[in-house]
């Protein structure tokens, strides 16, 4: 769309619309002739500097030993069948780890849920033993408790007032229910709300 890697990197840093506006106002598509926010101007040269240093570290005074590098990741690969959306935190519990560890090992997973279907995911090394049993037990418990956590929206409710009522963060309410803030809620809609005292 932008025609050059420098403009693409600049758009990544400052946003496509902001960059397009500057191109239109300044009447040039040459990155090196555009006056952009200082952060964006520095961003490109930081990328170039990192590339040069990583390509030839010795030339720039960096002498790296094997012990300087991160150790390779160790993990087990498992297959999970989801008959419906499943919270990723549940997968983390079945793996005897936390949400962050699962997200770090599986950066391709977007959001807080695994979608319906079969997934091949990575879990910490050694946690595959007994995983299926723990996972099935947690899914059953999750399903059993779901109905206890449902709140039916009433006339006059809004997300902030519901969050206040149950003393939970508004952001958590949005994540639990996959809400789109551009779409209104209506009386009769159902929300899942986890009790605060059940949170770890």
What would you say this structure looks like, in words?
The chain is an alpha+beta fold. Helix content is 42%, strand content 13%. It contains 8 helices and 6 strands; from the N terminus they run αααββααββαβααβ. The chain has helices spanning 5-14, 16-26, 38-55, 88-94, 99-105, 131-146, 159-166, 170-177; strands at 75-82, 86-87, 113-114, 117-124, 150-152, 190-192. Helix 1 packs across helix 2, helix 4 packs across helix 5 (99-105) and helix 4 crosses helix 6 (131-146). The radius of gyration is 24 Å and the shape is flat.
Strand percentage lies at 5-15%
Strand order of the largest sheet: 1-4
Tally of distinct domains = 3
Mean pLDDT: 89
Radius of gyration: 24 Å
Number of helices: 8
- What does the main sheet amount to? 2 strands, antiparallel
Structural class, by secondary structure, is: alpha+beta
- Spans of at least 5 consecutive residues whose pLDDT stays below 50 are none
Classify the helix fraction into a percent range: 40-55%
**Tally of DSSP β-strands:** 6
Along the chain, the helix and strand elements come as HHHEEHHEEHEHHE
Instruction: Indicate the overall shape.
Output: flat
Distance between the termini: 45 Å
